[in-house]
Amino acid sequence: MKIEFNTYTLETAIPVESYLKKRKPAKFFNRETAAAVVCVGRLLKGETLNTDTSFYYAKGQVEYQDFGLEQIAAASRDDSGRFCRERFVTKAIAGISPLTQFKILYNMPLSFVAIEHHLTGDNAVIYASGSGLITQARHAPPGFPVLLGAGRVFPDGTVESGFALAEKEEFQNAPLPSSYVEAIDIFSYWLTLYGGNVK
């Protein structure tokens, strides 16, 4: 098993352009997606995965980024302060950048990593659950390694990203964490326990 775990504070630049074949997609990234692209790039170090590699990503809480939802809600209210569909369509939606939709969808870290590395195998986004992520890996189709990832964005803008590449069999006897353990915490635990490469 190979493991990579990265943390970026709000003041630390995420060097995503260094890990993209083409820089244009970066404008669609939020902090979690940028950190995921960098983390998996560091994990693979230029290695090319088989396109049928299974890839599962656990989406954690995004507690920092403001996608303009407060402004949308305010622009959608009528003069009495109630929600107005007409204002939502004519005023609120018009003020949203088309790029915002790519930043708020839960599957964007998985999607952009898969696009960058040409992964078309079995994939799924799991909400936060560490046990759910390992269970998904246990049920991956046989024949290729499994790529697991997870991310979390804290209220202060700090973002964590973790990735592991392993054979499916390596997860069969791995203990399942409690249902309260977030997937991202598994990667920091594995890194502390085993270091970057686990044999």
Structure, explained:
The chain is of the alpha/beta class. The chain has a single domain (2-64, 99-194), classed as Peroxisomal Thiolase, Chain A, domain 1 (3-Layer(aba) Sandwich), CATH 3.40.47. It has helices at 31-44, 69-75, 85-92, 100-104, 108-116, 130-138, 169-172, 183-194; strands spanning 2-8, 54-62, 123-127, 146-153, 159-166. A 5-stranded mixed sheet has the order 1-5-4-2-3, sandwiched between helices.
Backbone structural class? alpha/beta
CATH class: Alpha Beta
Q: Low-confidence spans: pLDDT under 50, at least 5 residues? A: none
- CATH fold assignment: Peroxisomal Thiolase, Chain A, domain 1
State which percent range the strand residues make up.
15-25%
Quaternary form: single chain
Biggest sheet: strands, sense, closure? 5 strands, mixed
Mean pLDDT: 86
Number of strands: 5
Tally of discrete structural domains: 1
Give structural attributes.
199 residues; 8 helices; 5-stranded mixed β-sheet; 19% strand; Peroxisomal Thiolase, Chain A, domain 1; alpha/beta
Topology (SSEs and partners):
Layout: E1 2-8, H1 31-44, E2 54-62, H2 69-75, H3 85-92, H4 100-104, H5 108-116, E3 123-127, H6 130-138, E4 146-153, E5 159-166, H7 169-172, H8 183-194
Parallel strand pairs: 2-3, 2-4
Antiparallel strand pairs: 1-5, 4-5
Helix pairs in contact: 1-5, 2-3, 6-8
What's the short version?
With 199 residues, the chain is an alpha/beta fold.
